[in-house]
Design brief:
CATH topology of the largest domain in chain A: Butyryl-CoA Dehydrogenase, subunit A, domain 3
Shape of chain A: globular
Structural class of chain A: alpha+beta
Oligomer: heterodimer
Low-confidence stretches of chain A: none
Number of helices of chain A: 10
Mean pLDDT of chain B: 92
Largest interface: A-B, 14 and 11 residues
Distance between the termini of chain A: 38 Å
Distance between the termini of chain B: 56 Å
Order of helices and strands of chain A: HHHHHEEEEEEEEHEEHHHH
Number of helices of chain B: 7
Strand order of the largest sheet of chain B: 9-8-7-10-6-1-4-5-11
Radius of gyration of chain B: 22 Å
Low-confidence stretches of chain B: none
CATH architecture of the largest domain in chain A: Up-down Bundle
Number of domains of chain A: 3
CATH superfamily of the largest domain in chain A: Butyryl-CoA Dehydrogenase, subunit A, domain 3
CATH architecture of chain B: 3-Layer(aba) Sandwich
Shape of chain B: globular
Strand content of chain B: 15-25%
Mean pLDDT of chain A: 96
CATH class of chain B: Alpha Beta
Amino acid sequence: MPVARITPTPEVGDLFTLVRDIGDAELRPRADPAEASGDYPRDVLRLIGRSGLLGLPYDDDVGGGAQPYEVYLQVLEELAMRWATVALGVSVHTLACWPLAAFGTAEQRKRWLPDMVSGELSGAYCLSEPHAGSDAAALSTRAVRDGEHYVLTGTKAWVTHGGQADFYTVFARTSDGGSRGISCFLVPADAGGLSFGTPERKMGLNASPTTLVYLDEVRVPTERRLGDEGDGFGIALQALDSGRLGIAAIATGLGQAALEASVSYAKEREQFGQPIITHQGVGFMLADMAAAVESARALYLTAASRRDAGLAYRHQASVAKLVATDNAMRVTTDAVQVFGGAGYVRDYPVERYFREAKVMQIFEGTNQIQRLVIARDLERNGT
Amino acid sequence: MKIVVLVKHVPDAAADRTFHEADHTTDRVGVDGILSELDEYAVEEALKLAGSESGEVIALTMGPEGSADAIKRALQMGADSGVHVVDDALHGSDALATSHVLAEAIGKIGEVDLVLTGMASTDGGMSVVPAMLAERLGFAHIGFVGEMSVDGGTVRARRDSDVTETVEAATPAIVSVTDQINEPRYPSFKGIMAAKKKPVESWSLADLGVAAEQVGLDAAWSQVQSVTKRPERTQGEVVTDDGDGGIKLAEFLASRKFI
């Protein structure tokens, strides 16, 4: 049974059907082999783009789908149920488009956004550096003004789609002064001086390339600066508020996939003469998994509806990211337990889900940073 | 170039398909319906031909209310408009009646250059409607086509069967296509949004000047007397190899006359 979804219009119902069709036919069968070989599914991302899924939350005047976050996030969840790498690709791309969509001038939006949100291009988001992770304001990549250009030099780390993306949304320092000295730039992949490290050898999500990005005197025209000089850190944090909702939805989808695999295995697998789902020890574990997945879904949808209504949602986005990814870790761990020995081998997908869940507690703000965001909000604004 | 593509709404083959108890016709209500997968190839080919020749693609179906979903799918893929022939009297129509009604509908659409269909429906699967239609309309008919092109008033097509033939016909023509001809596209979200604004006409038998007595179960040349569910698959026989596994295997195959 497909997950019951909120479908504000019949077209959204058709959209979910389309995503499930593409997911079942093009994603699910390829996930296992591609994760084993580490082959980035560029062609799948192109198909996703042709299907109009790379710009769902952006305005229709720039070629986006003009859908509320509530809809976009459920699409991400459906994709993640079938292949987390692809869902992550869509989420990171959407994140990389956000600074231009939200902070670009009318001229900048008109010039670059349609190709980014309505087609097959994919984007990458370059904020972290080897020595500036959670403390992003400590980044040291420099952007030095030289006439009508900025010259960018530095190293970015943990960049999803590094070496594969068509554009890079890069945060770099235009002046000293901590978080107030950072600016945001839209850098095309063919910019001279841009190069990439070899893909990291990761625990999971191996079909999604993660690399260092080297900027060696990359000349970027001033017209490619998004927002004013010094606005960069605020842009980065606001982009991450939206990005975290994407991660919450992806973690929910991964948990849902682990739950579905576990329930179907527990109904088939017999021990002591009966399906193990009827043993209370297993049945209760599955019940807790279902509760964890459904509460994660409810949280990201709550945050999304606040965002869609134009209300503040930073606090709720952090709560959703924190709970959904912690829940995904627990659910995928329990899924391995439900499968027993079979869960520890690569013949079943839950071993992979378990490895994929871990990074979700880490990227787009570790869950410790989410707690920091929530605690600061409590300190400033109360409950 | 005006292309009509025939789109049939059929019960999803992945679901449990049943028949009505009273008259043994296909239950089209109690099961999820989809656009017959073989017709998706016809839609794709129509869109490709229309795209290169700046043509118009009209999706035509005949069937109960829910059949409009087949048209919707074609519109989401990119067809320009739809025609749905719907009338209670059509219930139980055979291929002869179907071809009669569709021929009238194509006549009413008018000035059609090309009619494209799948090589069969994934429910009835008789594959006779295209030929019957061609006969009724006086169109050329090329069946089971794996590759085709249209140049001016000429259709050129490759038919794959025991031998491969390349044939030509003058338009107007009816072409049924196989699943080798192309890779049907997925709809896009833009296609989904655009489809709701595309025109779909609904025609009754009266609109087509067809009498109710000419169609439906009573007019069918053959009627289904009984239906039997295919027996559940039983577990195969497991042969334990106690050193004589080969002999047992050969005996089993011989008993089923495989060797």
